[in-house]
């Protein structure tokens, strides 16, 4: 029981801890990270409601046509989830005094994303999976869905961080949303198409590319930190 709980809760907290350590020069208060994590978890309620509306409107995965599946992946799932995460950051953390350098955008967006991914883990592991499959579902998501959400959060956070300290605020915020939503949508799109053998490899290619750019985003924001000495 405790092993399954650790596999469900642990990955998000470990990734958040790793990002906290990457914030080398002026760390965020831990209570704000906890609030961001909880905010991300609570935002799943909005997403569940929104996805129900999308499904009631007839949007979902189709095995007969790529276009409905693409809409579902990029808009219903990727767009809705990333909008919810971005909204939490903008409403509750963006204007705080502690948000005082570009790297903080990554920290808060990842904290919210990990809260979201962890709540999603609980839904999949304890709500949707059969008891005999729960451990396998938790293990699979540990190495796929949770790192994917972290990647989307880093890409979003890079642009959110620069939006606060650049005159092109609206443009950076648009990039924050679309970069995360597109990467998220691409990842899910290739997983949703099941009638083309081998196409799911596209999800892992998109995730690999996302991780590559996320690492570059982390390194760049560390280098431009105003608190960096020398």
Largest sheet: none
The shape, in one word, is globular
- What is the N-to-C succession of helices and strands? HHHHHHHH
Q: What's the overall average pLDDT, rounded?
A: 91
Total number of helices: 8
Name the beta content range.
Answer: under 5%
Structural class: mainly alpha
Low-confidence stretches: none
The portion of residues assigned to helices is over 70%
Question: Can you describe this structure in just a few lines?
Answer:
This protein has eight helices and no strands.
Itemize the secondary structure elements and their pairings.
Blueprint: H1 2-22, H2 30-56, H3 66-92, H4 103-128, H5 134-143, H6 145-164, H7 169-192, H8 201-223
Helix pairs in contact: 1-4, 1-5, 2-3, 2-4, 3-4, 3-7, 4-5, 4-6, 6-7, 6-8, 7-8
Short descriptors:
230 residues, mainly alpha
Question: What this model shows, in words?
Answer:
The protein is mainly α. The chain has one domain (2-223). It contains eight helices and no strands. The protein has helices at 2-22, 30-56, 66-92, 103-128, 134-143, 145-164, 169-192, 201-223. Helix 2 packs antiparallel against helix 3 and helix 6 (145-164) runs antiparallel to helix 7 (169-192). The chain is globular and about 55 Å long. The mean pLDDT is 91.
